[in-house]
Amino acid sequence: MAFLATIIFSDPNHALTKRIKISPLKSTKPKLRLSQNLRKDRIGYAAWYARYGDTCDPFPHIITASGKELDDEDYTCAIWDYKFGTVLKVTNLETGASVQVTVTDRGPSKKLYKEKNRIIDLSKRAFSTIASLSQGVTKVQIAEVK
């Protein structure tokens, strides 16, 4: 549904008019859709995440956004742009090492995503496959595995 509107611009010599179409429900901001995958390969930073504590942890079972239990030893990741269950290939751009992970959670936090270009959080085991855990963050390239 679109409306026609007449806009009159204030001009000291004469009035200027222009007809434009206005769509009241159309957003001007582009929408980010899950698994849109227009970006075949993404480059950004990856960090690792794990549940806190040890085996005596009073909350040993952490449930991810997909409903699966978080396991530090699985090859999983948290990312905003792909559907749960999608398999991704994550390649460390400094060393060339790569790992395949399954999307089971959402993350990293929106603040890190926007300000620090942190695009993915890897499980402890997945991150240790491509970089040292003490490094904490590394530059990676992400590609969806078909």
Structure commentary:
The protein is mainly beta and 146 residues long. The chain has a domain of 98 residues: Barwin-like endoglucanases. It has 2 helices and 8 strands. A 6-stranded mixed β-barrel has the order 3-7-4-6-5-8. Strands 1-2 form a two-stranded antiparallel ribbon. It is globular and about 35 Å long. The two termini are 39 Å apart. The relative contact order is 0.23. The N terminus is likely disordered.
Please outline the helices and strands:
Elements: E1 3-9, E2 16-22, E3 41-49, E4 76-78, E5 87-92, E6 98-105, H1 110-115, E7 118-123, H2 124-130, E8 137-144
Parallel strand pairs: 3-7, 4-6
Antiparallel strand pairs: 1-2, 3-8, 4-7, 5-6, 5-8
Strand content: 35-45%
Number of strands: 8
Amino-to-carboxy terminus distance:
39 Å
Side by side, the strands of the main sheet go 3-7-4-6-5-8
Low-pLDDT residue spans: 1-12, 27-38
The amount of helix comes to under 10%
H/E element order: EEEEEEHEHE
Helical region count?
2
Task: Name the CATH class of the domain at 41-55 and 62-144.
Answer: Mainly Beta
| CATH structural fold name of the domain at 41-55 and 62-144 | Barwin-like endoglucanases
Radius of gyration using CA atoms only: 23 Å
Secondary structural class? mainly beta
Task: Please tag this protein with its features.
single chain; 146 residues; mainly beta; Barwin-like endoglucanases; six-stranded mixed barrel; two-stranded antiparallel sheet; 9% helix; disordered N terminus
